């Protein structure tokens, strides 16, 4: 069943001794000695005095350095202990979060593999798909591939020309909350990024695409989407974008896919699916057409970005097989479209 969703180190401050310049602290220490052996000191030349004072200052500096080093070592040991404790705590939290999805939930047989194996059954599941026009291409392929499973409600919430960069135009984190509250999906599939090779506006700042600041801000947007879904008890499958033809665009999509992979794979309950080579030529380059199930077919549109129906079917078959293997769903793709290489 398919339903159309609503898309809208510091050192001590010690002054170095300079000949002919008074050093008050050292003078206070030396003064009693000067009164006691005044005749002796008057017979010494200035060079000898400088040597004595220089040695004294050196001893002080050595003592200070030793103290600083001891403090640093102690601090490092304490930090190491804290880091180790924090790492153990983080690992525990991660394990608990993943475990929450390792059994069937809310009447749906979908679950992530864990210590316990459950019977493979579909039950009644809701899968929500969000994304831009590229995501829509892939979601339309999904409609055909799972058409024979009426117990699966596929909610399509794609919106063309959107993304995670141009938030003033359309904020996915904002709209996603209401979508999740309305549909209560067991699995959220995300296919997005086609319009995100641009500057990003966040927190009153504009970050230029590809800069370190941009990557941090964009990764944060990705993280928000994933965590919103997990908070709504939905697992997340983030589908990376396939190979593109325009060279500049190709490079931008690679950057975006790298961020998706890094962020999503670090979050328990979320999975990243790489589709870069699914529609490529066997040599790894872009292909506008390919033999699908033995028949030469157009798989990409003239812009070298979007997909034709046969390309949508190939991507969808790949996704359905992944869901079958990863979420223990007994899915068999309807068209089962593959590129015969």
Characterization of this structure:
- This protein is an alpha/beta fold and about 350 residues long.
- The chain folds into 2 domains: about 35-100; about 100-325, Rossmann fold (3-Layer(aba) Sandwich).
- The protein has 8 helices and 10 strands.
- Strands 1-3-2-4-7-8 form a 6-stranded parallel beta sheet. A two-stranded antiparallel ribbon has the order 5-6.
- Helix 7 links the parallel strand 7 (about 235-240) and strand 8 (about 270-275).
- Residues about 5-95 have low confidence and may be disordered.
Report how far apart the termini are.
33 Å
Helix content: 40-55%
Number of helices: 8
State the CATH architecture of the largest domain. Answer: 3-Layer(aba) Sandwich
Please outline the major beta sheet: 6 strands, parallel
Extract low-pLDDT stretches: 7-94
Could you tell me the number of beta strands?
10
Inertia-based shape: globular
Which structural class do you get from the secondary structure elements? Answer: alpha/beta
């Amino acid at each position: 069943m398919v339903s159309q969703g609503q898309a809208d180190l510091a050192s001590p401050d010690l002054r170095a001794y300079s000949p002919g310049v008074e050093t008050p602290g050292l003078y206070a220490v030396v003064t009693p000695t000067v009164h006691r052996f005044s005749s002796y000191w008057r017979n010494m030349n200035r060079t000898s005095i400088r040597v004595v004072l220089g040695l004294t200052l050196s001893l002080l500096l050595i003592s200070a350095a030793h103290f600083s080093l001891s403090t640093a070592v102690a601090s490092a040991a304490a930090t190491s202990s804290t880091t180790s404790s924090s790492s153990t705590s983080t690992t525990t939290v991660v394990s608990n979060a993943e475990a929450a999805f390792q059994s069937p939930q809310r009447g749906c047989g979908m679950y992530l593999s864990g210590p316990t194996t459950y019977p493979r059954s579909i039950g009644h599941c809701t899968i929500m798909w969000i994304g831009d026009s590229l995501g829509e291409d892939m979601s339309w392929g999904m409609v055909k591939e799972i058409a024979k499973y009426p117990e699966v409600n596929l909610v399509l919430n794609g919106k063309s020309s959107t993304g995670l960069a141009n938030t003033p135009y359309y904020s996915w984190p904002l709209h996603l909350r209401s979508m999740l509250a309305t549909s209560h999906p067991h699995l959220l599939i995300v296919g997005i990024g086609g319009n995100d090779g641009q500057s990003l506006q966040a927190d009153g700042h504009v970050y230029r695409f590809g800069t370190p600041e941009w990557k941090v801000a964009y990764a944060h947007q990705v993280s928000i989407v994933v965590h919103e879904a997990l908070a709504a008890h939905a697992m997340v499958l983030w589908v990376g974008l396939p190979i593109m033809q325009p060279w500049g665009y190709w490079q931008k999509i690679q950057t975006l896919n790298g961020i998706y992979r890094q962020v999503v794979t670090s979050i328990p309950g979320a999975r990243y699916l790489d589709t870069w080579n699914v529609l490529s030529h066997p040599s790894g380059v872009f292909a506008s057409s390919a033999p699908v199930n033995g028949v030469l077919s157009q798989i990409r549109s003239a812009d070298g970005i979007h997909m034709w129906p046969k390309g949508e079917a190939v991507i969808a078959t790949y996704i359905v097989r992944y869901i079958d293997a990863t979420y223990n769903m007994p899915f068999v793709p309807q068209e089962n479209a593959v590129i015969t290489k």
